[in-house]
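[Discussion] Sanity-checking designs against the backbone

I'm trying to build intuition for which residues belong where. Below is a structure token string of 998 positions. I'd appreciate it if someone posts a full sequence so I can compare it with mine line by line.
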């Protein structure tokens, strides 16, 4: 882990961005034998505070190449460090930081150049730091000691390396002994199989007590993907920058996932990159991020030019560098951005130039052998421009020599480095420039190679590549149907354009009056390599004895007819071969015959020359004059969802305008859908509304002479609209059960009806019918503030019953849809029922009984006036009137009844004029009883007494009359008669009067 510190010991050099590494396969004995030597030095220290100095007795030192390739790591127990048996050249030496006792030793990296004069290194001095301060670190989680919450492990780092790792936190306080430095504390917590990493920075200048609460840390995590959203698999680096733009910390992850917890993450900017990919910088924040990094490549071109006898070789290497490149062998190589690495190291262009000079291999055993021999470095120059993080180019020129010799057939052996180092992907290209009398003779399978002589280009390979080199020899020209390649715009590469394949009369068909490209790359065989080489062969063409053209791929625009084409080919060795080709040029399109058939449409069309004849539904139309493309002026009307048949199978083609037998193809186009069948069926699923669509048929012959016919089509809407009705009650509340009281109203809104084919609703019509579909009398309902043609209507229902409200919706194409809704209208009427009739004991003649009748109003309105009727043996004997019986209540009414002796059938009936008889016909509105009326036992005695009293009265009357004056008697008698006159009754029943309780 690295940080802001570490500038005290500036590294002496930086690693190579690009180097050529050692060959895998050993060669034969070389004319040049590599010299070897040793890199050695004394390792010392100096204390950064006290200045105390001495030797370092315990160290780990790594030796590597400039591209970061590890050579060797050794542990030394004495101050003397030595690596022996090394070929002359440049190396990177890295001394690791380490802790010994109460001290920390800061490691360093240095560049060493080994040659005949030695390595130029005597002493290497490390900075020593005393672990002088005690840090009592309290680690909490949500206010609780962390060790009580879970299994936490502590790691600690200085600005230049690890102090200790994997210390379990088992107490509330962890004690750390630290130097004066910026210490990073890393707390790891495995929670339920998930690893969490918390990072905190402590600037230590004295002994201190520090408390951190991990629950306050922000979770910053995410995934890094490429432009295809595939997870990046190379090393990923996340660098957090302070507000001042300094590197706070860099976190290195093996692939494209990053996951950290940092206190107050929003104070940082995040810089994310990965090896082989671009850089993204953004304000950091808590949460999940998906970062997309485009892949980036840097070009490295290596040119090796050999002398005539291969005794000398000049190497010129150009290297692209930008901010996505980093220097892997140096300190700060994990920040992932060249700007920050160079800034931390403090390097200039001069430092880079010195590095590149030292990075050039001393012997070509690093990258090249020729016929088993190697070359030794003679001179080197390096050009490094001013550092521009947007991109700059480094140029290296080196001269190598040898006294070895080669024969007529030998191998160049090349080893390429990895294509991705710490930074961008490297796109290497190697160019070998051979002497004039040599050429490349093979095609290695593990490399992409272009060119045969004099230049050979090699790229995209790994490991060792063996390139065979031979003396040049004359080529051989072969002519066959598979050798010649033809091309013109729109060519169908699956067709065979060859008429005659014999060598002495090789004939093909090509289009007339069009640019035809002829490719002979497979016609000339390099005898030396036994391959067809289109890149290093010279082609000279002559058409019908006319002007010459050169190149393996030439073009001609031929008039219709037969032509002769001569080819002269010269391979890389200078040998010549000849070929003759006959070209048959065709410039006539097929003669089209088109038929379109639908239910209401028939179209027949034929084309002869430039004349287009057609009829629609049997009626001939005005002929059209056109060529290449025809547009029929009439608009064809086709119904939506109708299957229509399209035929072009009677079309004819010719080879030269007169000779029949040519092949042709058909392509029907129905908007975005296509068909290549001569006979096809197509259905338009949707109408065109005010727009039109186009049907196109293109007829093409073998060489793509074609004619295109366009038809304009209107597709009629045949789909009924969708009726959507929203029903609301008088309060405006939407309802789904359509019920209302009589006299009430409902609002029906069909304005959300729609045409599914993107049309418009043109008309609405509302009406009301019964269950049999018969229109209802308009006295039963009323349209309120609306008309039957409105999209929204309010209907008032005057009387109870079942109504069917119907709406017809018509779209602008005349398609109609209907929706019927049943509405139940409830009555607001009383509903009276006699629930019980009771009296005390049996009836007796002359006796007046109180009969109690219970009446219940089960309706939805009060009964303002009603009658209780008594039928005795079918004859009405009583009718009592009562008032105001509220709905939902039951009351008892008392009736006074007198009956004649005998058995009688009594029927008590309740009658209310407000109650609908048809609706409540089955209600229990009456009670039927059978009663027996006993004869009064005092009846005859009473009669005798009455007779006696009557006689006595008569006697008394005459007696008085005889004893008083007549007038006085008459007056008295009338008065008495009036007083004693009994009430005359017409029947046995005396009516009673009921009282309302209200």
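Best answer:
Here's mine. Compare freely.
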């Amino acid at each position: 882990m690295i940080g802001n510190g570490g500038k005290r010991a500036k590294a002496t050099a930086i690693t190579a961005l690009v180097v050529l590494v050692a060959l895998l396969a050993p060669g034969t004995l070389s004319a040049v034998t590599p010299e070897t030597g040793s890199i050695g030095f004394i390792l010392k220290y100096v204390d950064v505070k006290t200045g105390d100095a001495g030797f370092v007795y315990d160290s780990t030192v790594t030796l590597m190449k400039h591209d970061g390739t590890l050579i060797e790591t050794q542990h030394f127990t004495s101050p003397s460090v030595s690596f022996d048996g090394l070929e002359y050249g440049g190396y990177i030496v890295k001394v690791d930081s380490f802790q010994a006792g109460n001290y920390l030793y800061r490691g360093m990296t240095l560049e060493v150049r080994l040659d005949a004069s030695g390595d130029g290194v005597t002493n290497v001095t490390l900075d020593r730091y005393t672990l002088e301060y005690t840090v009592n670190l309290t680690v909490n989680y949500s206010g609780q000691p962390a060790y009580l919450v879970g299994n936490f492990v502590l790691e600690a780092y200085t600005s230049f390396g690890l102090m200790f790792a994997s210390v379990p936190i088992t107490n509330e306080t962890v004690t750390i002994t630290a130097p004066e430095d910026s210490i990073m504390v890393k707390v790891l917590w495995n929670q339920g199989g998930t690893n969490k990493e918390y990072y905190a920075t402590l600037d230590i200048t004295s002994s201190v007590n520090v408390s951190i609460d991990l629950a306050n840390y922000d979770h910053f995590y995410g995934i890094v993907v490429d432009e295809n959203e595939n997870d990046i698999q190379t090393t990923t680096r996340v660098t957090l920058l302070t507000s001042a733009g300094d590197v706070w910390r860099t976190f290195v992850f093996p692939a494209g996932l990053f996951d950290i917890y940092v206190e107050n993450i929003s104070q940082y900017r995040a810089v994310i990159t990965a090896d082989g990919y671009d850089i993204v910088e953004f304000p950091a924040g808590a949460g999940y991020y998906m970062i997309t990094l485009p892949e980036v490549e840097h070009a490295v071109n290596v040119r090796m030019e050999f002398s005539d006898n291969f005794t000398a070789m000049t190497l010129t290497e150009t290297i692209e560098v930008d901010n996505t490149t980093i220097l892997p062998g140096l300190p700060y190589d994990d920040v992932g951005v060249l700007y920050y690495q160079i800034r931390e190291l403090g390097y200039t262009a001069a430092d880079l130039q010195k590095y590149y000079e030292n990075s050039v291999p001393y012997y070509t055993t690093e990258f090249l052998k020729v016929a088993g021999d190697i070359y030794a470095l003679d001179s080197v120059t390096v050009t490094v421009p001013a550092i521009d993080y947007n991109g700059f180019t480094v140029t290296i020129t080196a001269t190598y020599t040898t006294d070895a010799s080669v024969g007529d057939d030998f191998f160049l052996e090349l080893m390429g480095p990895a294509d991705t180092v710490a930074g961008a992907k490297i796109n290497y290209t190697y160019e070998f420039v051979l002497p004039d009398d040599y050429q490349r003779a093979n095609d290695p399978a593990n490399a992409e190679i272009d060119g045969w002589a004099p230049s050979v280009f090699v790229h995209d390979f790994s490991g060792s590549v063996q390139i065979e080199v031979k003396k040049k020899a004359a080529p051989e020209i072969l002519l066959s149907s598979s050798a010649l390649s033809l091309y013109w715009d729109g060519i169908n590469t699956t067709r065979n354009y060859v008429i005659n394949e014999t060598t002495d009369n090789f004939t093909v068909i090509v289009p007339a009056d069009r640019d035809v490209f002829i490719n002979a790359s497979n016609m000339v065989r390099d005898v030396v390599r036994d391959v067809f080489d289109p890149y290093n062969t010279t082609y000279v063409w002559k058409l019908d004895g006319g002007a010459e053209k050169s190149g393996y791929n030439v073009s001609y625009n031929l008039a219709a007819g037969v032509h002769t084409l001569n080819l002269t080919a010269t391979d890389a060795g200078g040998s010549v071969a000849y070929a003759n080709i006959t070209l048959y040029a065709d410039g006539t399109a097929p003669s089209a015959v088109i038929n379109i058939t639908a239910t209401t449409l028939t179209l027949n069309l034929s084309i002869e020359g430039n004349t287009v004849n057609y009829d629609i539904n049997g009626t001939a139309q005005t002929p059209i004059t056109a060529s290449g493309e025809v547009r029929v002026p009439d608009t064809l009307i086709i119904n939506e969802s109708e299957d229509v048949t399209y035929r072009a199978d009677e079309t004819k083609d010719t080879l030269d305008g007169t000779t029949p037998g040519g092949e042709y193809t058909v392509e029907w186009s129905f908007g975005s859908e296509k068909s290549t069948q001569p006979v096809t069926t197509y259905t338009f699923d949707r109408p065109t509304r005010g727009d039109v669509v186009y049907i196109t048929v293109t007829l093409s012959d073998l060489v793509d002479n074609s004619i295109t016919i366009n038809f304009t089509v209107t597709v009629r809407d045949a789909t009924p609209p969708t009726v959507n009705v929203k029903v609301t009650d008088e309060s405006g509340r939407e309802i789904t059960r359509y019920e209302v009281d009589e006299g009430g109203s409902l609002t029906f809104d069909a304005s959300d009806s729609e045409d599914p084919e993107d049309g418009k609703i043109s008309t609405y019509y509302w009406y009301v019918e019964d269950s049999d579909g018969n229109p209802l009398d308009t006295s039963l309902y009323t349209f309120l503030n609306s008309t039957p043609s409105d999209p929204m209507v309010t209907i008032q229902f005057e009387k109870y019953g079942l109504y069917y409200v119907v709406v017809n919706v018509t779209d602008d194409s005349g398609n109609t849809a209907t929706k019927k809704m049943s509405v139940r209208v409830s009555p607001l009427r009383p509903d009276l029922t006699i629930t019980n009739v009771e009296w005390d004991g049996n009836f007796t003649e002359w006796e007046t009984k109180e009969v109690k009748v219970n009446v219940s109003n089960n309706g939805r309105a009060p009964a303002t006036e009603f009658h209780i009727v008594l039928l005795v043996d079918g004859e009405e004997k009583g009718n009592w009137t009562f008032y105001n019986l509220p709905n939902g209540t039951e009351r008892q009414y008392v009736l006074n009844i007198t009956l004649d002796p005998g058995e009688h059938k009594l029927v008590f009936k309740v009658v209310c004029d407000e109650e609908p008889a048809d609706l409540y016909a089955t209600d229990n509105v009456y009670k039927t009883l059978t009663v027996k009326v006993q004869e009064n036992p005092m009846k005859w005695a009473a009669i005798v007494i009455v007779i006696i009293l009557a006689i006595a009265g008569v006697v008394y009357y005459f007696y008085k009359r005889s004893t008083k004056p007549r007038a006085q008697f008459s007056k008295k008698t009338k008065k008495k008669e009036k007083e004693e006159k009994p009430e005359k009754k017409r029947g046995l029943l005396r009516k009673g009067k009921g009282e309302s309780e209200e």
